[in-house]
Structure prediction request, 259 residues.
Amino acid sequence: MARTVLPVEGDTPGAGGLPVAPPARGEGGVVHRADGPADGDRVDVGAVLRSPWLLAPIGLAWAILATAQQQRAGRPWTFLVSDIVPGLVLLAVGLLIRARRSQNRCWYLIVGAGFAWYVGDFEHAAVDDVVLAGFVLGRWHTVLLAWAVLAFPSGRLQARHDRVLVGALVALFGVRTMARLLLYVPPDLGGYGTANRFLPISDDRWWRAVEDAFAWGISAAVLVLLVSVAHRLIDVSGPGRRVLWPALFAAAVLAAAVI
Prediction:
């Protein structure tokens, strides 16, 4: 008499009625098929997008494109060099930190500042929407650099007053961005100006008032940043003090560039 094999729960009858082993279950009850891709074969998209091998050529192409905008505007070669070099230095420093200490969040901020450095170069592009974006979003690299300096060396803002300062900078640049987007901006020496697309305002005094307040606010903010970093340098011991010297130097350079 032929024996009948009864499949147990979870078994799937295979050829000839023989039971087939149930699929393996991983953490959380997730079923892993034996014929499916293994975990090691999965592509980490986030890791690919953060790879220096991808970010470096994209950053270089972005810098060349931005410099070409300035060249078409008739800028001299000395201006072109002074425009392209700082952004490339920021990108290189950020990617170097990424290669050596990938868990340090400072590299995100510095690489982001490197890309943001060139946004303002598109103020005189041929496409109106690109022109508006370049004018509205210019100089946001200052926020990212200030954040990176205050978060150095861990990449995290440790003190409450540092978080407040970064929040104040974001608010300050946010108001400036909205003013440039929504208010009337008179033409500059290059003939650039923006007619308000959204609000019936044709008086440039509102925009000038915001720009003047922004200039005072950003100057005060970077001075507070410099004092904050100097205070941290004084409070720490010898080894920690050596670590913070680059942050103080970066804060001083940022303050000199802004003021």
